[in-house]
Amino acid sequence: MSKIVVSTSSFDFDHNPAIQRLRAQGFTVTGNPHHRRLTEEEIIELLGADTIALLAGVEPLTQRVLTTAKALKVIARCGTGMDSVDLQAAQQRNIRVSNTPEAPAQAVAELTMGLMLDSLRQIHHTDRSVRAGEWPRTQGRLLAARTVGIVGLGQIGKRVAKLCQAFGAKVVAHDPHLQQNPEDVELVSLNSLLEQADIVTLHLPYSSDVHHLIDATAIARMQPGTIFINAARGGLVDEAALCTALNSGHIEAAALDSFEQEPYQGPLRECKQAILTSHIGSLARETRQRMEIEAAENLWQDMVAAGLIHE
């Protein structure tokens, strides 16, 4: 019997109805033995020549990978982003591809708010000082008094907007794919957003068209003292330019949950005003469970549609 691979770094096999149904049909379901993001070589080895369906994480599913996995017919992404999948190569090989766009939205939005509030109130810095025997009287700033600029007003961006508005913040947004202003959010050009926002937060998918969207030129447009947040994709940001701006003080604080190369080993680790998290945006227990269940259901339905199983 052909096999199915689950390549996400972690997965609850025992409480996933679709996975249980697939096993009952006689399929061998194989997990990720490394329990981390796989390299191109590792996913090629894991898929082999007999894998017909993949429940995917964020490993690079390049043309080479898809060409090597000769039996592969279905890819179900456990998450939103599709930038790790060569969609053109998948289409050429008649491989069905799906994702779970709504499942992680609330978790990423809530992490964004946590990063935003930490940056404004210097919570982590104060914690470190108290542990070192100090008693700092750090004066932070109110979110209610800030203008938040949201780049990308999709499922996550809209939730961030509502949460910021609940705190009393003014919200402006840039999204070239929207033609009509959402309620209480002013749509502006990217340059206008960068120039007027006190906090800039990214919530758009990555593609080559927006590679290093936030570069030295974009950063220079931001107000001195801006707080910058990226809980989207690492390739959107020129990390070296951001590090330079943090060290100069032009950017007051930055918080990043995703990086161009992961695990991240770059110079932002030395920036005291940078908060760095390990791509944990969707890793809320409730969200993770929903993502896994939806991805597995997508896998099942696409296998049915491809004629690989019969209900």
TrEMBL record:
SUPFAM superfamilies: Formate/glycerate dehydrogenase catalytic domain-like, NAD(P)-binding Rossmann-fold domains
GO MF annotation, one: (S)-2-hydroxyglutarate dehydrogenase activity
GO biological process, one term: L-serine biosynthetic process
D-isomer specific 2-hydroxyacid dehydrogenase catalytic domain span: 16-299
Gene3D superfamilies associated with the record: NAD(P)-binding Rossmann-like Domain
Keyword tags: Amino-acid biosynthesis, NAD, Oxidoreductase, Pyruvate
Residue runs in coiled coils: none
Domain D-isomer specific 2-hydroxyacid dehydrogenase NAD-binding span(s) in chain numbering: 113-281
Lineage top rank: taxon: Bacteria
Family: Belongs to the D-isomer specific 2-hydroxyacid dehydrogenase family.
Protein name: Hydroxypyruvate reductase
